[in-house]
Automatic annotation (TrEMBL):
It is an enzyme of class 2 (transferase). It comes from the Eukaryota. It holds the Pfam family Acetyltransf_2. Keywords: Acyltransferase, Transferase. The keyword Transmembrane does not apply. Its EC number is 2.3.1.5. This is arylamine N-acetyltransferase. Gene3D superfamilies: 3.30.2140.20. InterPro entries: Arylamine_N-AcTrfase, Arylamine_NAT_domain_sf, Papain-like_cys_pep_sf. It comes from Nesidiocoris tenuis. Belongs to the arylamine N-acetyltransferase family.
Length: 293
């Protein structure tokens, strides 16, 4: 058994209180509880890869460390952090939950040599399977999505958020409908390859330490905030150690509003909506981000 599965000091009541839940509602493992836990988790833990890009350090991935950083300190985090905390909560409450490492596509061609830089969960419940993805940048999924994993299916989550799971002979691919077409998000093997805590942490270590340039770690900053009926998306490019092209996108009831910002406006909006304080300085005309922890 791993640390994630044996640690006894985790305060579940504290986790539930910070995410808007109640221990009185966790006595029965069922779909309503799963939906509530996933929605509350993704609504209260914002996505950010700022710490990854500016620090490139292995962070505390124990349940208590994740609880403190993501929720108590209100920092949020990237996929392997928030997904691992979600796994632990579901596991401790009695769900049959399993980890899956996936190959990110981001609407590009599949490259089998790319490291597995994203992590999702599959929950088996009452003979059905639910995909849980609470850490895919600003496109985290607010509900568990039921797929039968036997044929290609389309599922609406809310208006403006429609997903497609393509089932091919040797792989699955998740797509998101954007504007007038499906854009590819990621793919993973068929049959599904489940990984344990040790393997998941090895992939996390690869993400942080591999010397090659990784898009999510080296090339841009992303913040994602789930709100009722939509989401707020913040992004900017980060090339040659300098930030540029600051963008704020609001998606509400399927309607998208996109704005270009200056650095001060970007910093202010991120803090307003995610409570995250960006540290930066202007050095010879270059905007440099600094570690914020």
């Amino acid at each position: 058994m791993s640390i994630m599965e044996t640690e006894s000091e985790f305060d579940m009541k504290h986790y539930l209180s910070l995410t808007g839940g109640s221990s009185e509602d966790t006595n029965t493992v069922n779909l309503n509880l799963l939906k509530s836990l996933v929605y509350n988790h993704v609504s209260n833990i914002n996505y950010q890869n700022y710490d990854l890009l500016t620090g490139k350090e292995i962070l505390d991935m124990t349940p208590n460390g994740l609880l403190q950083r993501l929720l108590v300190d209100r920092r949020g985090g990237m996929c392997y952090e928030t997904s691992e905390l979600m796994f632990y909560v579901l596991f401790k409450l009695g769900f049959d939950v399993r980890r899956v490492a996936v190959s990110v596509l981001n609407d590009t061609n599949y490259d089998p040599t790319e490291p597995l830089v994203h992590n999702i969960l599959i929950v088996h419940l009452d003979g059905k399977m639910y995909l849980v993805d609470i850490g895919f940048g600003y496109n985290s999924i607010r509900w568990p999505v039921e797929f039968d994993f036997e044929k290609t299916e389309e599922k609406f989550v809310i208006p403006g958020e429609k997903y497609q799971l393509i089932c091919e002979e040797d792989y699955y691919q998740l797509n998101l409908f954007i504007k007038d077409r499906y854009a590819s998000l990621y793919r993973f093997p068929r049959p599904i390859t489940y990984i344990d805590h040790k393997q998941s942490m090895a992939y996390y270590h690869d993400l942080v330490t591999l010397p090659q340039t990784l898009y999510i770690r080296d090339s841009g900053i992303y913040f994602g905030v789930i709100v009722e009926g939509g989401r707020f998306c913040f992004s900017c490019d980060y090339t040659d150690g300098s930030a540029s092209n600051f963008t704020f996108m609001s998606i509400q009831d399927g309607v998208t509003d996109k704005q270009k910002l200056e650095i001060d406006g970007f910093v202010d909006l991120v803090k307003k909506h995610s409570k995250f304080s960006i540290k930066n300085e202007n050095i010879e005309g270059k905007i440099i981000f600094k570690k914020a922890y």
